[in-house]
Every structure is written in C-alpha cells, then in structure tokens.
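Ticket 4471: requesting a sanity check on a complex prediction with nicotinamide-adenine-dinucleotide. Repro inputs:
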Amino acid sequence: MTDSFDVLVIGAGPGGYVAAIRCAQLGLNTACIDNQINHKGEPALGGTCLNVGCIPSKALLESTEQYHKLIHSFPAHGIKTAEASVDVAIMQKRKESIVEGLTSGIAQLFKANNVTAVHGFGRLTMDNTVNVLDESGKITRTLMARHIILAPGSMPSHLPNIPFDHEFVVDSTGALNFEKVPGRLGVIGAGVIGLELGSVWSRLGSEVTLLEALDDFLALADHQIASEAKRQFAKQGMNIRLGAKVSKLSKSKGGLKIHFTEKGKESSIEVDRVIVAIGRRPATEGVVSADSGVSVDERDFILVDDECRTNVPNVWAIGDAVRGPMLAHKSSEEGMAVAERIAGGKLHVDLGIVPWVIYTSPEIAWVGQTEKEVKEAGTDIRVGSFPFAATGRARAMEEPVGFVKMIADAGTDQLLGIHMIGPHVSELVNECVLAMEYQASSEDLARTIHAHPSLSEAIHEAALAVDKRAIHRAN
Ligand code: FAD
Ligand code: NAD
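Returned structure tokens:
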C-alpha cells in the first residue's frame, strides 16, 4: 500500500511531534512515524523527552526534592513530622502515570489536528519515499510525501569497556527505573544527566560518586556558577571527582569496581550500581538509506544549513540529530520553523539564545554567553551580580542560596549572557531569554518594575549592579 502526504515526519519527539502538529495547522496533509514503545509494549508518542527523558526525570526530581525538604527545610519552618519514609514503588508509579498522561495527550493532539500517526521504523530511500519497517525489519508500508522532516533524536553514548547490562550498569533510562535505592551509586560523567539523576538517588540516601573525565566541573556553564554548584553539591554529600578517566569495570566481592586514573594515578571505587552518562549521540543509524543521498557527518549528525535543510531538496532535519544543543525546546522550535518554511513562511531559530536549565537543587540556568566566551571573543564587558540571600522572597522560602550574574557589552550595554543558580531559576531564566531575544540592554531590565517580594528581584538588582547601583547590596 502506498500513501501520499504533503509532509512526512520521522520521529515523534518534541521536534517531530511539534513539527507535525504545526504542519497540520498550516493545512498540510501530515503523517508522523515513530517507533517508541512504553513499558507496556504499546506505542508511545513524545520521544525521548516524554518517555525516558525530561518528564520522568523531572517527576522523580520533584518527588525527591519534596522528601529532601521535608527532612532538611521543614524543621526550620517549625513543621515537625514523625519519621519520614519513602515508598519508591509509589514514586515510580506517579512518574509513570505522568508520562502516560502526556504521551497519550500527544496521540489526542494528533487526532484533533488530523495528523496520521504511523507506528514503525521509518527509513528514507530515494525520491522522498519512506519505508516503514516493523521490529523484525520487514517493510510494512511505503509512504511518499512532498516534504520529509527527519527528527530521529538521540541515544545514550556508551563506553567500549563498560557495556550496559540494564540492571547494575545502566544508562539514563535504567537510572529512571531503579526499584530500590542503590546503597552506593557510581555515576560516570558529571554532566546534566549525571547531576540530575545523581541528585535523585542521593536525596533518597544513595552514597553517590560522580567520576568526571574533565578537570573542569560543568565546563559548559559560567565558571562562577559552576564553582558555586560544585560547592552546593558537595555540601549535599555528592562526591565529585574531576579528571577521573574511567578505564574499566570489574566485579568485586561486594559489588562492582570502577577503575579510573585520576591525576595520573590508578584508582578505583566500589559501588552497587553504575550509571553511564557521558553524553548522547544522534540516533540516525538506518534512518536514511545510502540511495536517499542525505549527508551525515563522521559523528552521525545529519548535516543541515541554518534553516534545517539537508543537502537533498525538500528533506529537512531537526532536533538532537542535527548540530546545536540537545534540548527539547530547541528541537520544538526547529520543528515549528521548518513547518512554517514548508508552508511558505519564515521563522528564524537563534541558537545563540537557547536557555539551558539543570534541574538540580539549587537549579542552574543560563542564556547567552559565559564570561569566558565573551572575553575570548575580545569583547569589553560590564558584569553585575546579586545573591538570592539578599531577597526577602528567597529568605521567606528558606532557600537563600545562589545568585544571578549578568554580562553586558561595556560599549552598547546589550545583554550578552545571564547566568543563575538558585531557587526556581528554571522559571526566572525565561524573562532573560525574552530580554535577549529583543536585544535588550541591562538598563532595560534595570528600568523594568519587578514585583516585590519575588525571586525575580535578583534579576532586577543584578541589572542595576551592572551599573554599580544595586540597592540591596554594597556595590
Ligand atoms: P527524541 O525526543 O529523541 O525523539 C525522537 C523519536 O524518534 C523517538 O521516539 C525515537 O524512538 C523515534 N525514532 C528514531 N528513529 C526513528 C525512525 N527511523 N523511525 C521512527 N521513529 C524513529 N531536554 C530538555 O530540554 N530539558 C530537560 O529537562 C531534559 N531532560 C532530559 C533528561 C534525560 C534523562 C534525557 C535522556 C534527556 C533530557 N533532555 C532534556 C533532552 C531531550 O530529551 C532531547 O533534547 C529531546 O527529546 C530531543 O527531541 P527530538 O525530537 O530531537 O528527539
Ligand atoms: P553531558 O554532555 O551533559 O555530560 C557528559 C559528561 O560526561 C561531560 O561532562 C563529559 O566530560 C563526561 N565524560 C565523557 N566521557 C567520559 C568518561 N569516559 N569518563 C568520565 N566522564 C566522561 O551529557 P549527559 O549528561 O549524558 O546528557 C546528554 C544530553 O542530554 C545533555 O547534553 C543535554 O543536552 C541533554 N539533557 C538535558 C537536560 C536538561 O536540559 N535539564 C537534562 C538531561 C539531559
């Protein structure tokens, strides 16, 4: 059976499903092919993000943060409880029901927008033809479209000497599904996943050691934010070992031994479980056949231009499978932009203004360039910062931790980067994204009235501090 569409999307993650819905809204006859299945073996739309990424991780982070607060912050409020305990099975069930609610919500949105959902593995061949394969690799359908959007996403990278057994040695998906709290947890890679999932299990009582190959902690973030984060995580009991190059894993009497070199010396730690979180790679294997003509680079990323066009006319690619940060909102924005372009419109995605959030406690968020990046570019800057401890709201919340740091061009005052660590900065950063999107100056934020008492006053004061006129701290 051959079916013809205006647009065929391969992958229903936040890139693909958003692209499909927007194409349908724009009047294009659209189908979306996805091969993800949930723990019940049923098709589940939403990709990595909804099924095994952003959403389940945030559900567990929220549960465990509440538990941590109950023990560590509530007493300061005068709230006392009998002994607190955790039921991991209930916590995991809550996570699963959130995931199910959201993934089935995408199926309903597809129906409401007349997007045809096709379950299977899509492979682009020549002439805009896509074969749909079942699990055994058999072609079950052949679809054609005027435009193809490739959105296959990414998968965890693995270490050659440390294969996953999906029970004791796991990737992020396994780490979201532990049925009980590991006694000693080794995390290879102190990046975003290592810190978020390390926090989840540390809050529940695991003894967590993060082994990071680089000498710098959180090399992507601004150095001041990263060093405050490291201090806070160490205070919470997470053991972060930098410059730790992992070589192999062996079985030991009491569990597993991770072997690594640290500052040139051989070392090892014994753990009960290991999470490997050393980055993700594009899930592009088999998505484009050789005769499709689509170019892929040596790291398996699909090559695209600034507008997400591949080298083949009318074949587009978006999300984790192409250059740029591997973030859900970046994928979605590219999906919307491509839909608009297919329909004859225009929408530009500025990869320089993509917010980053790490959902640890305290949270970490930023948009734009770090101080190191702007200095390396030779730009003269002015920097203002302001601590949450000097805001009434953070104190009232019993969370007087962290700060906002704002970097502006010394000549034009245009905002170049805004970095923060502290309570709810995942929400606060979006004001800064909007400001940068409008090419605002620090003076624009300094002249914007912020509600009192609110955490956002730290942004206002950091903007005032750029000009050395913060009110609630000495300049
Ligand atoms: P994906 O979400 O990976 O979706 C691709 C889909 O395509 C999948 O369903 C896949 O099965 C399917 N597919 C692949 N190939 C084919 C094919 N040939 N045929 C049919 N279907 C195919 N990002 C954030 O912004 N915020 C977060 O808080 C966050 N937390 C995360 C936590 C974890 C534990 C992980 C692992 C990731 C997290 N991310 C987060 C990253 C985020 O999940 C990804 O950036 C995002 O999902 C990428 O979207 P995408 O649409 O490009 O691809
Ligand atoms: P990451 O790139 O954030 O961190 C991987 C870390 O592992 C790096 O610090 C790297 O230096 C280190 N590393 C690499 N090889 C190593 C080795 N052999 N031994 C020890 N350390 C090693 O990758 P991740 O944490 O796996 O996450 C993947 C991506 O998923 C992220 O980059 C991000 O794009 C996305 N993600 C985003 C969020 C969020 O937005 N909150 C949450 C989770 C994941």
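Notes from triage: Residues 362-466 form a domain with the Enolase-like; domain 1 fold (CATH 3.30.390.30). Leaving this open until the requester confirms.
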